What we know:
Layout: H1 17-20, H2 31-41, H3 45-58, H4 60-77, H5 82-135, H6 142-183, H7 185-232, H8 234-240, H9 243-295, H10 301-343, H11 378-381, E1 394-401, E2 411-418, E3 423-427, H12 434-441, E4 449-454, E5 457-458, H13 464-470, E6 471-474, E7 483-484, H14 485-489, H15 500-517, H16 520-525, E8 532-533, H17 541-553, E9 559-563, H18 571-583, E10 587-591, H19 595-600, E11 603-607, E12 612-615, H20 617-623, H21 625-638
Parallel strand pairs: 3-10, 3-11, 6-9, 9-10
Antiparallel strand pairs: 1-2, 1-4, 4-5, 7-8, 11-12
Helix pairs in contact: 2-10, 3-5, 3-6, 4-5, 4-6, 4-10, 5-6, 6-7, 6-10, 7-9, 7-10, 9-10, 15-17, 20-21
Pfam family, one: ABC_tran
Organism: Streptosporangium fragile
GO molecular function: ATP binding
Amino acid sequence: MPGPSLTHPLPNPGPTPAATMTTPPEDRSTAGGGRLLWALLRPRRRALAAALAWSVIEALPALLSGSLIAAAADHGFLAGRPGVGLAWLGALALALLIKAAATRLMFPHLAAVTEPLRDDLVRAVVTATITRAATGTHPPDTAAVTRLTAQVDTVRNLVTALLRSSRALGMSLIAALAGLLVLSPPAAAIVAGPVTAALLVFAWLLRHLTARQRALVLADETLTTHATPILTGLRDVAACGAHDQAYATVQAAVDAQAAATRALAWAGTGRRLIVTLGAHLPLVILLLAAPSLTGGGHLSAGEVVGAVTYLVTGLSPALGALTGSVGAWGVTLAVTLHRLAQTITPTPMSPAAGSHPASPTAPARTPAPTPAPPRSAGADARPRPVAVRNGYDLRADRLGFAYAPQAAPIVRDLDLTVAEDEHLAVVGPSGIGKSTLSLLLTGLHPPTEGRIRLGGVPLTAIPEPELRAVLALVPQEAYVFTGTVRDNLAYLRPEPDAGPADTHLLDARLRAAATAVGADALITRLGGLDGVIDDPSALSAGERQLLALARVHASPARIVVLDEATCHLDPAAEAHAETAFAAREGTLVVIAHRISSALRAQRILLLDGTAALTGTHHDLIARSPLYADLVGHWQDHDHPATGG
Ligand SMILES: Nc1ncnc2c1ncn2[C@@H]1O[C@H](COP(=O)(O)OP(=O)(O)OP(=O)(O)O)[C@@H](O)[C@H]1O
């Protein structure tokens, strides 16, 4: 029976976070989770039975403690025969030793249950995700796999913890009650009522805890879904100064998660009541009734001590820990298993929405999160073109940078001038510091040594909004947010004045930028500038790059740094986009990952870890064996058939 698919993991979020997380009625059953758990445990039932058998022996002290202490008191210490009393206590010590040995022998059986369980679950989750991707139009949703394998680990840890503690505690509880019944039926009668009431209240509370826990898991998943694209494009978020925009996209999910956590914590406080009702109350009643019970000959003094022992050392801790562990871990386990059960039931793909079907984890029935608010808090910080008095040449003097005070510097003593309107390519082996340099040149990381000046003004002296308006970085992973295509492309443009003529001009500028970088076909497919991007993760990495390139092309930036910003495009599309930036007014710095990018530049900067060389392609081929090696490697890679 197919359960609801992870394709639609979330209820429909509305404006109120608490309401958005309400679980739909058909989702309330945890039967799917129970079936999944049974399917996982069934092949290991022998190991489980062996672990349970050892638990019975582990419960020996709980069963015997009260009776042995009663005997020690009545027949030993109170009868003036301390030796006999000590012998009874010795019997209790022996029972505790047997318990320790049983615990030691039980553990391998427990491990035989829980360790393979994790492997089976991971296999099922990954298989279901790949099956879904193979039968649909989207690549495997790696974020979902990460999220789900985290849930698998949760399940493994919870099953282990529950089997380890609750199994023993449950046995102790039963053993303490059985021991009390054997020792003294009147005492057992006093305890029976409150314990039964406590267990009934616990059963009722469990339903609430489960609902709250499920709401929390859903809130966690919503937050992950909304936060993943932001985390992936974090550099682009920083480069665009889009912190407020990015936070606005996840804010509702963050608030909903906080509300769900608080609601669960409140429900959890009810567990304390259960211990009070089931263990503390019978103890008080027993102590109050003790004089009449002993006076009437129903109980001996030793039996009262024995009954109190059962309550204090058996029933109370077992009930407390059991309600704690089942109420917290058990509820989490039930909910997490239920989510996994939904996930690993392969389901048909959802029909594509327009030309852009939702990704496997994209909540297709879930309306987009807060539609792209025009940059709220960023309104004041909106980049405005700035006139830098002495032009736009970018000059680094004795530049140095290390990621930590004790770490080896990535950039050392670098002197570099990038002239206004120059087209520079930066090349070097992987990990040499090209991306780090791009962050320094655009002022996104302050250097640890030396300084960078723009038109003679240190970057640190230029206000951040002005800096962002002039210097634009397009990193490898582009940030595209939920909203219209226009919102995305116009993000770095100054706000047009209210008039329709301004809007018209802005649209023309955005369309021209899109055409220049080769994004026009994509934008037409998305529905034009008014088209809504519901789920940015449904776009391919190359499509997101095209949108980020068009956004920066349309911006007023005078210096653009492309840090492998075209790596997901094919060589022809890359050439198209780079040529558009080269033709655009202003300076272009390209972190090159293909020889063609280097060849297109007027000048090349080669980073080799100790020194930085600049020159044309031919200069560097003649002067630098490292550059010749890099070129050879690129040629092999780009034209393997020619053998370089
Ligand atoms: N945030 C960071 N914290 C610490 N070390 C970092 C950080 N970012 C990068 N590094 C390290 O700095 C060095 C240079 O990294 P960088 O990404 O700048 O190199 P790159 O030349 O761009 O590499 P690639 O061509 O592979 O993208 C690497 O050793 C990298 O591990």
